[in-house]
Amino acid sequence: MPDAVTVLEDLPEWLVVDEILLRLPPKDVLRCRAVRKSWRAATSTDKFILNHHRRQPSLPIFHRHNEGIFRLVAAGDHKIQQVLEYLTPTDPTAHIGVMHHAACDGLLLVSTNGPLIKHATFYSSNPATTFYICNPATRKCAPLLPPPRRPGFNKATVVAFYRHQASGEHRVLWLINNHDASGAVVHPPGYFVLPVGSDQPRCVQWPTHLANFRAIQTHEGPPVHHRGGLHWAPGLGIKVFDTDTETFRQMSRPAQFHMVSLHHLGGDLALCGTSLECVTLDVWALQDYDAEIWGFLYRIDLRVVVASPPLDFGSIHVPWMALVNGRELLIQHGRYRILHCDIEGLYLGEVEIKQYENSWDMFTKYLSLTRHRLQESLISLPLFEMQEEDAVHHKPPFTIVL
Fold first, then answer.
1. Number of independent structural domains in the chain
2. I want to staple 73 with a disulfide (CB 3.0 to 4.6 A). Which of 77, 97, 148, 177 is the partner?
3. Which pLDDT score is estimated for 225?
4. 64 vs 295, which has greater pLDDT?
C-alpha cells in the first residue's frame, strides 16, 4: 500500500478522486478513507456518494428462509452472496422471523418479530415487531420507529421507502389500519409519510376515485421508481405515488392479464403479465409515459425452455421474474428452481442452490427470488450516528456479512 500511495501522490487530487476512487467498489473506497484525510473528505461529499452510487450495479435480492438475505454476485452470474445473516436464537424454542420490506439508495428496510424492543406508544405489526434500516456496504444499522399510535388503528406496515428529492430526506410510506381477531380490516386504512428519524408523520389522502380499490400491501412486491413516482400494479390498474408532491394517482395498463409485476427496464417502465396457466410470461414496455401507451416486447414460454433437468409442470407454480439486464432475466419456477434465461427463452443455467443435509432443511431453508434490488452505496443517515451511541441496547437478530 505505501508504494501505491507514493505513485498516487504524483497525480492531481481531482484525478485520483474522479477517475480512480470513483470506480472502486464501496469496500475499497472505505479502505482508502483510512489512508489519507483528503481522500476521506473527498469521498464523503454528497456529490461523490451520489455519483459513486450511480456506477454500482443494481442486482436482484434473494431470501433464504431462516438463513438470511442474499444478492446476485454480478449480473449474469449464477452465484449468490449473503448480505444479512440471521442469528440463531439462544432459546431453541424461539423463532425470530425477519421480513425484507424495501430497498432504496443501497439501504435496506427490514423488520423482525422477535422480542427485541417494545414501544407502547408506537404501532407494530405485532407487539414485538422492530423495524431496522441497514446499509450493507458500510455495515451500519439502526432501529426505525413506526408512526405514533392513533385512535382506531392497531397495525402499521411499510408500503414504500424513498428519497424525497426536494429535501433530500429518506422517507417511509406507511399503511396503517385496524384488524379484528380474524385479521379482517375493520377500519378504512390510512397512509402516512414519515421521514427517517422523525416522529411527526403526515397523512396522505387516498383519492376518492380510487376508493373501491384495495390498499397497497407490501407483500405484493416493491414499487418501481420511475420518473419521480413509485408504481404498483394491484388490481387492473397501476397506482402511482408521486414522491415530490406525495400524492396518489392511477395509470392504465394492458388489461388482459390477471397476474402482473412491474420492472425497470433500462429507462422504461416494464410490465410482466403471467397467463392463468402460469406457463407464459409476456413482457411489455411503457413506450409513451404521458399518453400511457404500452408496447409488447417478448414472450417467454416455459414449456419450450430446454432446462436441465426439465421443468415439472405436474403442478401449477406462479413464476416470479426479475430482469438482470435488457437481454437476460431470472425466473423462479416452483420452490427450488431459479432459471437464468435470455429474452428468447434460451436456458443459460440456474442460480446456485445449496446442498441441504436433509429434507427438512430443504423444505424450511429454500431460496426465494424477491422483486427487490440492491445497488450499493456509501450513504449514511443521522440515525446511524445516533445508534452508535446506543449500540449495546439495540442489537438486531442478524449480522451484516456483505
1. 2
2. 77
3. 94
4. 295
Note whether 61 and 27 are same-domain residues.
no
The CATH number that applies at residue 249 is: 2.120.10.30
Regarding whether 326 and 194 lie in a shared domain, the answer is yes
For the record, the C-alpha cell of 340 comes out as 437464468
Q: What percentage of the chain exceeds 70 in pLDDT?
A: 80
**pLDDT band of 124, cuts 50, 70, 90:** very low
Q: Give me the pLDDT at residue 299, please.
A: 94
Are 329 and 238 members of one domain?
Answer: yes
3-state secondary structure string, the chain? CHHHHHHHHCCCHHHHHHHHHHHCCHHHHHHHHCCCHHHHHHCCCHHHHHHHHHHCCCEEEEEECCCEEEEECCCCCCCEEEEEEECCCCCCCCCCCEEEEEEECCEEEEEECCCCCCCCCECCCCCCCEEEEEECCCCEEEEECCCECCCCCCEEEEEEEEECCCCCCEEEEEEEEEECCCCCEEEEEEEEEEECCCCCCEEECCCHHHCCCCCCCHHHCCCEEECCEEEECCCCCEEEEECCCCEEEEECCCCCCCEEEEEEECCEEEEEEECCCCCEEEEEEEEECCCCEEEEEEEEEHHHCCCCCCCCCCCCCCCEEEECCCCEEEEECCCCCEEEEECCCCEEEECCCCCCCCHHHHHHCCEEEEEEEECCCCCCCHHHHHHHHCCCCCCCCEEECC
| pLDDT at residue 349, rounded to an integer | 92
pLDDT at 143 over 70: yes
- Domain that residue 19 falls in: 1-55
Same domain? 97 vs 16: no
Q: Are residues 10 and 145 in the same domain?
A: no
